[in-house]
Design a protein that fits this description.
The protein has about 180 residues and is of the alpha+beta class. It has helices spanning about 5-10, 25-35, 55-70, 95-110, 125, 130-140; strands at about 45-50, 80-90, 115-120, 145-155. It has a single domain (about 5-155), classed as NADH Oxidase (3-Layer(aba) Sandwich), CATH 3.40.109. A 4-stranded antiparallel sheet has the order 1-2-4-3.
């Protein structure tokens, strides 16, 4: 089996991280993988915001917690010291799909590089707030973007989760009549 397929099979969402910072060179490689995700008509209408500033990371975590309705003190980023926020141009017809492909690439690249990751939702709601819009403006981002997701990143604290068995009956085949297992 190819190394890529093995990485796809073994990547798991991580929900407990060490506070050790990830070197920028590693984060850059993860970001690069996201930038090479497939996109509708090759439009490349997604952006990635890296957040490793603890104060901003904690502010985003608190906003996310409030949107999610969790109790005070809960960290929806599970202590991850870094996050990559994926946003996509609202007016692009495939923006949600394109952003989702970026998220997938980020998580696979992180796994390949020995970094744990987890897709955290509610970026859409965060960037619909005035705070979120102001953050984008402060970065010089003028177009209308929709938050797709946060890729929480960090080194795993504890054992790596086992890969659960795949559910059965999730693939269906429609083959040519002349194939051995075709529909009769």
């Amino acid at each position: 089996m190819s190394k890529l397929l093995e990485q796809m099979k073994t990547r798991r969402s991580i929900r407990k991280y060490k506070q050790e910072l990830i070197p920028q060179e590693i984060i850059d490689q993860i970001i690069e993988a996201g930038l090479y995700a497939a996109s509708g008509k090759g439009g490349q209408n997604t952006i990635i915001i890296q957040v490793t500033n603890k104060e901003l990371r904690d502010k985003i975590s608190e906003m996310n917690r409030q949107i999610g309705g969790w109790e005070d003190g809960f960290d929806p980023f599970y202590g991850a010291p870094a996050m990559l926020i994926v946003l996509a141009k609202k007016d692009w017809p495939t923006h949600v799909y394109d952003g989702s492909l970026v998220m997938g690439n980020l998580m696979l690249a992180a796994h390949e590089l020995g970094v744990g990751s987890c897709w955290i939702h509610r970026a859409k709601e965060e960037f619909e707030t005035e705070w979120g819009k102001n953050l984008l403006q402060s970065l010089g981002i003028e177009d209308e973007y929709e938050g797709i997701g946060h890729c929480a990143l960090g080194y795993i604290d504890g054992e790596y989760p086992e890969t659960p068995a795949r559910k059965e009956n999730r693939v269906f085949y429609i083959k040519q009549e002349d194939e051995k297992e075709g529909i009769k």
